[in-house]
Amino acid sequence: MRISRAIAIVTAALLFTAAGCSNQIAGTAKQDPTQPPLALSDDGAGIVAGYPDAPVQVELYTEPQCNHCAALQAEFGDEMGRYINLGLLAVTYRPLTFLDELANQEYSKRVANALFLAVGPPQANEEPNTASGPQFQQFVEEIWAAQDPIGSGPTDEDMKKMATKAGMPSDVADKIGDGQVAPNVDINEMAATNFGSLLSIDPINSGTPTVYDLSTKKKVDIHQSDWLDKLMSSA
Q1: CA-closest candidate to residue 66, choices 31, 97, 90, 110
Q2: Span 100-127, mean pLDDT?
Q3: Average pLDDT estimate for 217-227
Q4: pLDDT band at 67 (very low <50, low <70, confident <90, very high)
Q5: How far apart are CA 117 and CA 130, in angstroms?
Q6: Extended beta strands in the chain, E state
Q7: CB of 60 within 8 A of CB of 210?
Q8: 215 Cβ neighbours under 8 A, 6+ residues apart
Q9: On the CB side of 145, how many CA atoms lie within 13 Å of its CA?
Q10: What does the pLDDT read at residue 103?
């Protein structure tokens, strides 16, 4: 069970605190292997935050400029992060960028690129340096909380600060701050793939945010205030 894993982590942390460990350790921070992971989806168009064997698995279709998506994160983001951290939930984020076309800019594409930079591929002979699932969830919350509907969106430096605040490894945050192009995805192809998937789920009401339960193969009714509780009751 993932809960026992979480308890072990907390216990270890308490032991280190009791021992008065306060020395600083030099080097580059890497993803904690005891934390729920972050990975690309099998089709490369999504970002999976959480264990691949979590009992509850959902896809979340979201647009960086969508105010309803921001409201979802504000109300349920912390709770989703808690379930991800406990190993009970895995969320596959599927970014969309269609609102860029309405504003004739690349706000959503830049944010989507930053999200995929969090899933850094390993360099030659190196371990992958990525954020953890919970860190990524916190990063999402930070970005959507700073939504700029009538502006150009957060700058690369803004997003670097958000990544740092979310606890991401420093070199992951640096890549975001430098505005590097995510090497593991083509943003236009990703958006087209996710939009096609969204249409297949609900061709009539295909808006964002959409939560899709991968176990039941059904769209989740997120208009009910207890939708997440109901979803997690099956865990």
Answers
A1: 97
A2: 83
A3: 96
A4: very high
A5: 8
A6: 38-40, 47-49, 56-62, 89-95, 210-213, 218-219
A7: yes
A8: 56, 57, 234
A9: 16
A10: 78
Residue 9 confidence class, pLDDT cut points 50, 70, 90: very low
Predicted confidence at residue 128, as pLDDT, reads 56
CA distances from 46 to 12, 20, 152, 170 (A): 33, 41, 24, 23
Does 128 sit behind a cis peptide bond, omega within 30 degrees of 0 on the bond before it?
Answer: no
Which domains, and CATH codes, for the chain? 37-229 (3.40.30.10)
pLDDT at 127: 56
**Looking at the whole model, is its pTM more than 0.90?**
no
Does residue 60 contact residue 211 with C-beta atoms inside 8 Å?
A: yes
Q: Distance between CA 77 and CA 71 in Å, rounded?
A: 9
Tokens of residue 49, six digits: 């935050």
Question: Nearest Cα to 95, choosing from 130, 119, 131, 123?
Answer: 119
